[in-house]
Amino acid sequence: MIVYELACAQGHRFEGWFASGEDYAQQRERALVTCPICDDGHVERVPSARVSVPKGAPVATAPVNQSPASTAQTMASALPPEVIAQLRDMVKQTENVGRRFPEEARKIHYEEAPARPIRGQASADEAKSLSDEGIEFASLPPFLLPDQH
User: Fold this and answer.
1) 3-class SS at 96?
2) What residues make up the domain containing 17?
3) Which 8-state DSSP code applies to residue 139?
4) In terms of Cα–Cα distance, which of 40, 41, 52 is closest to 4?
5) 18-27, 93-102, 120-129, 133-142: the lowest-pLDDT one
6) 84 and 55 share a domain?
7) Pick from 43, 77, 111: which residue ends a domain?
């Protein structure tokens, strides 16, 4: 498994996990890597202090494009099943507020609603606005969502 440090044009940094250098190159050629935070397709490898590459594995150095679904599949295949089960159990304990996520996250942040774990959907613009306001949240890969597996 090769882990590359990636960044989108918006400055979001994230990891891309690849089975091999060849897998990385194929996904890059097929334009399959995008930012999991804002879905930006302009993603590039950035220097990383911790890259492990098996001897003899080809390493591509050009920009990468991987879809969030492909990134999630790669992540899911790299995690032990018991870890995935534990993460799914944690997600099941959250309240699904759907498209009201930005509104509910703001209410919780500004103490206008009781603090509680929530999940839902937000557009890239809504996510940026929440982040600009200092409201912390994280994107969940689809394989962790209760109704996606």
Assistant:
1) strand
2) 2-77
3) P
4) 52
5) 18-27
6) no
7) 77
